[in-house]
Every structure is written in structure tokens, then in C-alpha cells.
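Re-run with default settings, no changes from the original entry. Doing this only to confirm the output is reproducible before filing.
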Amino acid sequence: MNRWRLILLPFSILYGTITGIRNLLYKVGIFSSYEIPVPSIIVGNLSVGGTGKTPHVAYLTSFLKDKYNIAILSRGYGRKTKGFLVVTTDSIAADVGDEPLEYKSKFGSDVQVFVCEKRKTGIEMILKQFPDTDLILLDDAFQHRAVRAGLSILISDYSRPFFRDFVLPAGNLREWKDGEKRADLCIFSKCPPELSEQNKTHYRSTFHNPQQVFFSSVVYGSLIPLSGHSIPSDISDIILVTGIANPKPIREYLSSEAKVTPVVFPDHHRFSLQDIHRIHEIFRNFTHGKAIIVTTVKDAMRLLTEEFKNETNEFPWFMLPIEVDIEDSGRFTNEIIQYVESHKRSS
């Protein structure tokens, strides 16, 4: 724990006590949870910040969408709207949030995507409007105790695991570490390329069911142009624009390709024209024609708007796709499919 954050320890104890009492009230039944009547999977975490939930939801969707009618439900963090909304390919991030729009952009008509801050209301609306839904994936609902999914997957960053962290504000945990006991599976994300069996054994031992621990790593795709520009044959400089919780891994990856100049914004930042002009001004400092501007897919969802199109078309903007690779993927896939098959509604 950062020594400066030790000052905040009393507030962490207070916050942890409040969340602990809340969890206890749910556990003993004083607070009730809505049991989702169809197969449902929560993908969430114990900590704030980027653990990689979005690419893991996409990973699940990729291998399940051909077998089941999938609905993805998110709160739509950062959107200006309220209530239940159906996400379409014509939606904008300001209305539905960047992550839901990313799912819809990636999977199109293969899945239905929805946003609703009250998950119970969202689920009821989904089942009413789309009664053929076979499976609901809930993005970032681990602490949303008002609903109870059939399967819960906890994502924890390998470099910042939940068992080495502390409750907010002295640490980054949203609740005490023992909240991991509510999860059925745990995935340690963003693992280094070479992970020793000794480290795997240690990490498995921190979860209440060591047999249900998996490890995933980040896989970066090829750059995708956001305008009509092509990738220079020999890139010398990259202006990396990010508005995500943890841009460090992307910066380190791109640094092996060229010199990286980071332009960092807060997580889920709403870009303004002033921001775009500032980025372009930085780009103009690189006059040799071998520089490009790179952003994440999630950030691109907030940049691909009519307001910015005329501004960005003149510059070589690219987005960097991110996927995950889960070690022992066959066993992981079987665990998920076995759950869905054993909990399917009778027709």
C-alpha cells in the first residue's frame, strides 16, 4: 500500500464496514436478490480500474453467440441518458456508453446489447421484448447484489491482484477481499508471457476454489484506420491517446514499435473539440510523415462521432484492437457451456 494512502486507512475501514454490512444483509436474506430466470453470467471485479472485463465479455460472446441468443446488459457508464435502452450500430457513446457500443460494433446483429442502471429492470425488459433470449451476460455487476446470476466470473489484474490490495480509499478494492467467495470462477488477467507453475499455484491458492482459477493474457491485433490513411511502412512516432483506467500495458506494447508520446485522459473521458485540437497540435510537431495517432477501441467509440469526423479525417488516426487469450481455454469453454446447458429453460 502506498504510504501516503495509509492516511486514508480509517476511511477504508469505515467504507469496508458499510459494504460488509450490506453484503451480510444480502447473505442472510434481509435484502432480497432477484434471481435471473434464464442462464446468466456476471463478469466483474473487486477493484476499481481496468482489469480487462470488456475483452473477457467479448471472449465469452465470441464462442457462445453461435450456440445461443445472447443479450449483453451493462449500466452504460458515462452515458448522459437514463433508464433502459437498446444499443444499435447507430447509437453513440454519449447515449449508451463506450463499452456497450464497442460490443455492438464488434458483434452487430449476432447479439443484443442493452443498458440499464437498474439491472433487474433491464433484465425484465430484455425478457419481455426478446423472449427468445437464451443467455444474459452482465458486464460489471459483481457488486450489484440486487440481482443474482447463475454464474459469476471474477477478473483480477495479475499485476494488481485482489489479495494484495485493500479497500478504498487506501486501496482499490470496492469491498473486502472475501467478496471473492461469491465468484464461481476467477481469471487473473494481463499475465506476463512466461508464467511459472510456482506463481500459478500461489495465485490459485488465493481463491476459495483453486481448481476454478484461470490465467489470461492480452493479444493485440493489427491497427485499424479510423480515416482513409494507410499505415506508414516505417513508423517512427506514435501519439497514443487514451481515456482508460490503465494505459500502461498498451504504451509498453507500442514502445517496441516506435517512440510513443502518451496523451492521457481520465477513464471514460468525454472528448471535446478542444481535446482533438490539442492532440492534432501535438501531431503537427512530427513533420516527417512517419507519425500516427493511435487510440483504443473503447476510446474510438467516443471519437467516432459526426462532431469529430471532419476534424479527424485529415489525420492518420488508428485504433488498436485488444483481445484475450485464456490458458486452458478448452476447459474454460467447457465450464461455461456446461453451466448454460444445465440451466437452459425448457421450451
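The mean pLDDT is 93. The chain has two domains: 3-68+134-217+325-342, 224-320.
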